[in-house]
Amino acid sequence: MLPGLPPGPPLYVYHFSEDPSIERFEPRLGRAIEGRPEGELLVWAIDEHHAPLYYFPRDCPRIVLWTLEDSTPADIERWLGGSSARMVAHIESAWEERLDQCRLYRYKLYASGFETIQDHGVHVSAASHVPVSVEPVDNLRGRLQRSGVELRVLDSLQPLADAEVWNSTLHFSGMRLRNALEWAATG
Prior knowledge:
By secondary structure, this protein is of the alpha+beta class. It has helices at 73-80, 96-101, 140-146, 158-162, and strands at residues 12-17, 28-29, 41-46, 62-66, 87-92, 104-110, 115-116, 122-125, 133-137, 149-154, 171-175. The chain has one domain (12-179). Strand 7 and strand 8 form a beta hairpin.
C-alpha cells in the first residue's frame, strides 16, 4: 500500500493535459469500468497522492509499480529491487527526451460530483466540470523524484510484459502501452 495516503475523501481531484486552454471538462468515452454502463461518458480525474502517474507526456507508454498490503517479499525484491521509492516508474528510452521537454498543465477540480472507482486514485463524473485553477507543471523528472517516484529508463517495456509483471502481488499500472516499442502483451 502506498505510504502516506491521506484519510478520507479528497477535497480536490486533478486532470493533467498538455493543453493549457481547457475551460470546461465535458464527459467523454473512456475505458470500460467494471460495474458501470458500457459506453458511459465520463470526466476522469486523479487524486493528489496518485498524481505522479500523470507526470509524463500524455502519450508516453509507462508501467508504474508499487507495493500493496499483501505484496510478497519475493515480488518486492524481484520488481522493485530494494528501492525505497513509493512508486517505481518505467519508460522507454525513446521517450526520455520528450519527458525532459514536456510541459503539462494541472487542472484542479472540486472532488464533489466525482466518485472513486476504487482504482488507486481514479475518480469519475458523468457531469461537466469547470476547473478551479490551472497551473503549469514542468521538470517532470524532478517532480517525479520529489514525489518519491524512482524513474527507470529501459530500451523497451516488453521485457516487463514477457515476465508477466501484472501477475505479481504488486500494483501494476500500465498506461499508453499501445505506444510502446514492440508491445505485444495481452495481459
